[in-house]
Amino acid sequence: MDTKEAQELMRKIYFDRDLARGLERTLLRTFHELGELSDAVLRGNDQSHVESEVADVFAWLCSVANLLEVDLSDALDRKYGNGCSKCQKIPCECSNTP
Ligand SMILES: [Zn+2]
User: Fold this and answer.
1) Of 36, 40, 54, 70, which has the maximum CB count within 10 A?
2) Nearby residues for ligand 1 (ion, Cβ within 5 Å)
3) Does this model's pTM top 0.90?
C-alpha cells in the first residue's frame, strides 16, 4: 500500500469519527501514539510491537492530514521529492544536522 492508498483507507475507515472528535483531539491522540511508539522502542519491545506502533502513528497522522485536507503523498513529494528539503541532495549534505 502506498501513501495515497493508506491515507484514503484511513479516510474510509475513520473520517466520520475523526470529524466528530475534531482536529485538536485528533492531534492529541497522534501525540499519544507517538509516545507509545517511543515507549516500545526505548523498552526494547519486539519488532512486531514496534511495527504496530509505527503503523498507529502513521494512521493517526493520516487522520490529521484528512481533517486538514492535506494530501500526504503530494505534500511529501513537494517537500522531499527532490531530496533534502534544504540542500536538495540525496543523501542530505547539510552540515548542521546530526
Ligand atoms: Zn540537507
Assistant:
1) 40
2) 84, 86-87, 92, 94
3) yes
